[in-house]
Amino acid sequence: MKVLVYPHATEIGGSQLHAIKIAAATRNRGHEILVVSRPGPLVEIVHRHELPHVLLDPRAVRRPSRHAASQLTRLARQHQIDVVHGYEWPPAVESFAGPRLRLGLPAVCTVMSMTVAPFLPRTMPLVVCTDQIRLRAENAGHGLVTVLEMPVDVHADAPGFDPGTFRPDLGFEDSVPLVVVVSRLTPVLKLEGLLSACDAVGQLASSGTPVRLAVVGDGPSRPLVEQAAAAANARAGYRVVALAGQLDDPRPAYAAADVALGMGGSAIRALAFAKPLVVQGEQGFWELFTPDSAPQLMRRGWYGLGAEGDERAAGAARLATILSGLLEAPDSWPRLGKYGRDLVVDRFSLERAAATQEEVYVAAARASARASAPSLAADIARTGIGLSRHKAVRKWQRWRGNIIVDDFNMVAGARPGRDAR
Question: Which helix (H) or strand (E) holds 256?
């Protein structure tokens, strides 16, 4: 089978890395993969996995773009593609408007965000990362929805990886427990927890608890995280929080950690390194990953929502309590780490994910052949009207100055675009 894979962005992030890792693992099962994307850091990851790559038409500035849809159609025809696979809603709409409608090819959409865009074509097979999202999508009328939890390369991400000079490069001693969070520094989903983590570590260190925090990643919210780190360091009287920036290969950070913080794919990856994990959410949510909390955290997509209120302060207090308990009981770390590692190997391996992805492609080909003209026409109308409405709302938000960058990267019911206090 020949598959055209189209990630939605080219900065280093969970959905994009997921796209490339799954593509490489699917290639290893005997399929031909071609990746198309904008230029950016992700391209190096594509080359590292030895996947053929084509740059997206530079005229494809707006999202979705007719230039992108036309290029996808040309590539599909030129390379005799069997399935087009777009990640997140803009590539999905472009894949639908291009190869699906013009060539009749099956098009698949993977949504790693927490909400499925309401205007996505309902005849397009969906892949989502939690059962809760699957149920919401099916209730909205999507006919073929598959859950594919975020996979991990359990061979490359494993205990025993050499952390190198990660700690000393940040000025941290090996003898002091290190907490690590690997995350995009963005306002939606991430920022509140990152600020709370800085506050919590500053609070613990100022009270005499030996602990350090390394924040690994980059993004538009970096200045706010830097401010929180500076405040934590001032409160403690010395450097207890450091920003390591973006690492194309974050494995040294995971390997150097004594305790990991994270949500989604980053949380699962930390478990692969056999690290105790505290799962990050929003509205003050933090939860230690244990055999008791695991089922609920996995159902929620390695994420959670706390109570309303002063989320940053409440989150810092809750995280400080959890970290204090962990730091006082280092003998629990190997037990928690082994449980997490065993779970990841059993349930989240790339090999298992690639087998599931292969099944999705086969099912998509069958569903594409069965799709009726009236159902496609209904999808065209629904997507066109819904997308026009979405763009009008975005234009209004832009005019008001409160536009959301990751517009569907949030949980249904959460308040979008708010700044963490």
Answer: helix 251-256
For residue 227, give both structure tokens.
């401010």
The reply to whether 2-151+350-400 and 166-347 are identical in fold is yes
Instruction: State the Cα–Cα distance between residues 381 and 363, nearest whole angstrom.
Output: 24
Asked if pLDDT for residue 407 goes beyond 70, the answer is no
Could you please report the per-residue DSSP string of 84-143?
A: EEEESHHHHHHHIIIIIIII---EEEEE-SSS--TTS-TTS-EEESSHHHHHHHHHTT-S
**Residue 94 pLDDT grade (very low, low, confident, very high; cuts 50, 70, 90):** very high
Q: Where are the alpha helices (DSSP H) in 116-221?
A: 131-139, 166-169, 191-206
List CB contacts of 175: < 8 A, sequence separation 6 or more.
210
Determine contact, residues 315/193, Cβ cutoff 8 Å. Answer: yes
CATH of domain 2-151+350-400: 3.40.50.2000
The alpha carbon of residue 186 and the mean position of all alpha carbons in its chain are separated, in whole angstroms, by 12
Tell me which fold the domain 166-347 belongs to.
Rossmann fold (3.40.50)
pLDDT in tens, 188-247: 889 999 999 999 999 999 999 999 999 999 999 999 999 999 999 999 999 999 999 999
Whether 344 contacts 154, CB under 8 Å:
yes
Place of tokens 């060539």: 103
Contact 125, 294 (CB under 8 A): no
Other Cβ atoms less than 10 A from the Cβ of 377: the count is 10
The contacts found for 46-51 with CB under 8 angstroms, 24 or more apart, are: 46/20, 49/20, 49/21, 49/23, 49/24, 50/24, 51/20, 51/23, 51/24, 51/27
Residue 151: DSSP 8-state: P
Would you kindly state where each structural domain of the chain is located, as residue ranges? Answer: 2-151+350-400, 166-347
Confidence of residue 98 (pLDDT cuts 50, 70, 90): very high
Q: Which two tokens stand for residue 186?
A: 């963005």
- d(Cα 125, Cα 138) in Å, to the nearest integer? 11
**Residue range 4-10: mean pLDDT, rounded:** 90
The percentage of the chain sitting over the pLDDT mark of 90, rounded to a whole number, equals 76
The mean-pLDDT minimum among 13-27, 296-310, 332-346 falls in 296-310
Strand 2-6's sheet: what is its strand order?
53-55, 32-37, 2-6, 83-87, 107-111, 126-128, 145-147
